[in-house]
Amino acid sequence: MLTTEQFDRTRRLALSLAGIELVERHRELLDRRGRRRGILDGAGLDSLLDAAEEGEPTARQQLLCLLTTKFTGFFRHPRHFDLAAKRALRAAQCRGQARLWSAAAATGEEPYSLAMALMELFQSDHPPASILATDIDVEALAVGQQGEYGEAALRALDPERRARFFSWDPRVEGSRERGVYAASAREQNDSFDGDRTPPLPCEMKRRERRAPRLAARGTAASTASSTAAFPFRETRVARPWSIVPAARRLVQFRPLNLAGAGWAIAGPFDVIFCRNVLMYLESYHRGTVLERMASLLAPDGMLVLDPTEHPGKAGHLFTAGADGVYSPRRASFPERIP
Questions:
Q1: What gap in Å lies between CA 98 and CA 17, rounded to an integer?
Q2: How far apart are CA 307 and CA 278, in angstroms?
């Protein structure tokens, strides 16, 4: 179990790096996650925290992997994707092109679900639309960019969608991944918000790789040069299903820290998905994220949150619909997009 000092250090880093607010009930969860990622004792965690506090990029990325929840799936809350596709169709008819943003794309299931919904509604493999997929976790984004998934991930898809949008390579025996992206069902359900939605089963075999401990620091330079100083789990997972190229072309993956000082993103967007994100953020960051998203929405755009989430103090910027769907208040954005 994390000591009080270790947990306090982790809390400070979580808030400063990602705007994530940890409370006492998260201590045991972090301990479980750390052990599954190969951080088996207090010394290993101290080494990771030391390096993260000193600004070492690898350590900070691994800490973010420890902090962030990767629970996702294809067509989670299916109605959201129907509404998003219809809004995109209307935008394309009015302006010639629709723009959508999946702000917490994780391993890609959400943005690819958007791509499939667009292709179905537009009845075309080349709909006039683009999808931006962002996440703070660059390793998760790399998995999404590959567009390769295991059998378990596709179980939520009906046979027609599976046949149309995925190709199967029977020669694939497995692929090595660092991190948690082949996580077990139990690990996927380790959610800070207590999400009770059953996770998709994961068919995988775990094996632990020995990794050297962080050597005693001599200089900051020697610490910064270390790229394999922290323990991690290595897994082998069969991912024989590949998203079709037409759907892949619609999605652009890009790293983004929603709690960061600046977003290198230009609006307007017709649809923004920001599901299962706000609940993890500290109050100030929740409000700031929503204010920024409101400014990036087209006047007739649509913000999609998880049905259990709400805009909170930023609620005055939006008009609430059903099932977590919001539109920007027209008074806040009087100028219309041509």
A1: 32
A2: 12
CB atoms within 10 A of CB 267: 18
* pLDDT digits 0-9 by tens, 242-271: 999 999 999 999 999 999 988 999 999 999
Q: Which amino acid is at 57?
A: P
| Cβ neighbours of residue 8 closer than 8 Å, sequence gap 6 or more | none
Distance between start and end Cα atoms, the chain: 57
78-148+244-332: CATH homologous superfamily?
Answer: Vaccinia Virus protein VP39 (3.40.50.150)
Phi-psi region of 106 (alpha: psi -120 to 50; beta: other; left: phi over 0): left
Question: What pTM value is reported for the model?
Answer: 0.79
Q: Which residues of 100-111 are buried (b: 16+ CB within 10 A; e: fewer)?
A: bbbbbbbbbbbb
DSSP 312: G
In which residue are the tokens 């190709």 written? Answer: 167
Report pLDDT digits (tens) over 7-51.
Answer: 999 999 999 999 999 988 888 888 888 887 777 677 888 899 999
β 98-102/269-273 pair status = parallel
Q: CA quadruple 182, 183, 185, 190: dihedral positive or negative?
A: negative
CATH 3.40.50.150 domain residues, the chain: 78-148+244-332
Contact status, residue 308 vs residue 194, Cβ threshold 8 Å: no
Beta-sheet strands, E only, within the chain: 98-102, 129-135, 148-149, 166-168, 175-178, 205-208, 233-237, 241-243, 251-255, 269-273, 297-304, 318-320, 325-328
Q: How many CA atoms does the CB half-sphere of 299 hold within 13 Å?
A: 11
Centroid of chain to Cα 13: 19
Which residue has tokens 């999400």?
Answer: 195
